[in-house]
Amino acid sequence: MDNEGRAVLCWVQAQDTADNFLMAYAVSPDGGKTFNKTRFIPTTAGVYPHDENLSKILFRKNGDIIAMFAVSNPNPENDYAGLVKYTQSFDGGKTWTAAKQIAEDITGSIDERYFDMTLLPNGEVAAIWLDSRKEMPAEGSSLYYASTQGRAGFKNEKIIDRQLCQCCRTKLFVDEAGNLHAVYRAILNGTVRDMMHLVSGDNGKSFSKPERISADNWAIDGCPHTGPAMTATGTGLHFVWYTMGGGSGVYYCRKPNNQGFSQRETVSNLPSARHPQLCTIKNGELVIVWDEQAQQAGNLNNRIGLQIRDNNGQITQNTHLSPDSISATHPVIIKVAESAVLVAYTNKSAKDSQVWYKHINL
After folding, report:
1. Can you give the residue ranges of the Sialidase domain (predicted)?
2. Under CATH, what is the fold of the domain 228-362?
3. Rounded to whole angstroms, how far apart are CA atoms 344 and 236?
4. Kind and range of the H or E element at 70?
5. Per residue of the chain (362 residues), what is the pLDDT tens digit?
6. d(CA 142, CA 232)
7. Considering only CA atoms, which of 99, 149, 95 is closest in space to residue 127?
8. Contact call for residues 182 and 143 (beta carbons, < 8 A)
9. Computed from CA positions of residues 42, 143, 180, 169, in that sequence, does the dihedral angle turn out positive or negative?
10. Residue ranges per domain, the chain?
11. Dihedral sign, CA of 297, 227, 101, 355?
12. What three-state secondary structure class fits 1?
């Protein structure tokens, strides 16, 4: 959403047939039903399209804009390394600053990815990302945190956890009380890759000890490429994620106020179900989206699932948003009205990939 409460859709778009891309965005004048003219961000040259490592755009309360994106950074240590960069606009998107690497230690940080950012209660912007810098040779990435200082960009980077799964999306979320939450997939005991949660009550100055969301005990020597998501209601915190520990698919749990995490519940038990996202609408209802393989013989397409739960986590509706005739993946969702959401996803074909969106009244 922009600083005027309008829905904003951003994506990465090819500029030619030589794999040159730019970030693009469009603003909706009517709550996500239609979008105005596409605007390109010229200082994002080098950005590459990545379903899990999505580019992001954020509008500050004063109208300043930050666009964050990933670029490749092959080096002698890792041919597939990348960097997280950002660019700012102080005039409503007319002009943009030169892109900067998010890490201040630009010589020491040679691999950054799977980032997120959010607006803090104090008006600054917080960001997290996975970073190759670490204090021990153990497998995994470090989780770094930084926040903006006015228009000077991101400063005072620090490690807030260690040994994270290297290729799963991270998530930042600020609740109505102003607490800053981070969720991510960690590597526990060398082989287990489960979801973790930590929280800050002082705009990121300090963070709680990480807690495991669910003891899935998924032992895997590899990366699932699917991270967690969370939201909050008056009854507590709510989480969704993918695992193959003790069962396969997308799961949900909640953390009622001043209590521990509940036992996980199934959102979709299809082994192909991945990439969940969720948001909160009227009366604290939860809207969850994810992708999974269409359940038709010989059909390898993916479809977008949607589930609604009440503010206590009880299921009230299950449906699918996309037809089985297309291959739809990696949905994202935001609330655009008290009883309406906007869902965007990638429609993949042999020819190209397109961003589709759907405005849904609930």
Report:
1. 57-217
2. Tachylectin-2; Chain A (2.115.10)
3. 26
4. strand 65-72
5. 999 999 999 999 999 988 899 999 999 999 999 999 999 999 999 998 888 999 999 999 999 999 999 999 988 888 889 999 999 999 999 999 999 999 999 889 999 999 999 999 999 999 999 999 987 777 789 999 999 999 999 999 999 999 999 989 999 999 999 999 999 999 999 899 999 999 999 999 999 999 999 999 999 988 889 999 999 999 999 999 999 999 999 999 999 988 999 999 999 999 999 999 999 999 899 999 999 998 777 778 999 999 999 988 999 999 999 999 999 999 999 999 999 999 999 999 888 999 999 999 99
6. 26
7. 149
8. yes
9. positive
10. 1-176+211-224, 228-362
11. positive
12. coil
**What is the Cα–Cα distance from 164 to 196, expressed in whole angstroms?**
9
Whether pTM > 0.90 for this model: the answer is yes
Taking the alpha carbons at both ends of the chain, their separation in whole angstroms is 19
Buried b (16+ CB within 10 A) or exposed e, 114-143: bbbbbbbeeebbbbbbbbbbeeeeeebbbb
Query: Could you give the CA distance from residue 193 to residue 337 in angstroms, rounded to a whole number?
Result: 36
3-class DSSP assignment, residue 311: coil
Q: How many CB atoms lie within 10 A of CB 235?
A: 15
Contact 185, 197 (CB under 8 A): no
Q: For residue 249, report the phi and psi dihedrals to the nearest 5 degrees.
A: 130, -160
Nearest CA to 335 among 252, 239, 231? 231
What secondary structure does DSSP assign to 276-305, as a single string? EEEEE-GGG-EEEEEEEE--STT---EEEE
Sign of torsion, CA 9 357 285 214?
negative
Beta strands 327-337; 56-59: pairing state: unpaired
**3-class DSSP state for residue 149?**
coil
User: Length of the chain in residues, anyone?
Assistant: 362
> Listing from the earlier edge strand, what are the strands of the sheet with 327-337?
327-337, 340-348, 353-361
* Contact between residue 345 and residue 304 where contact means Cβ atoms under 8 Å apart: yes
- List the structure tokens of 310: 């009440």
SS3 label, residue 48: coil
The single-letter DSSP state of residue 53 is S
Query: From CA 86, how far away is CA 101, in angstroms rounded?
Result: 7
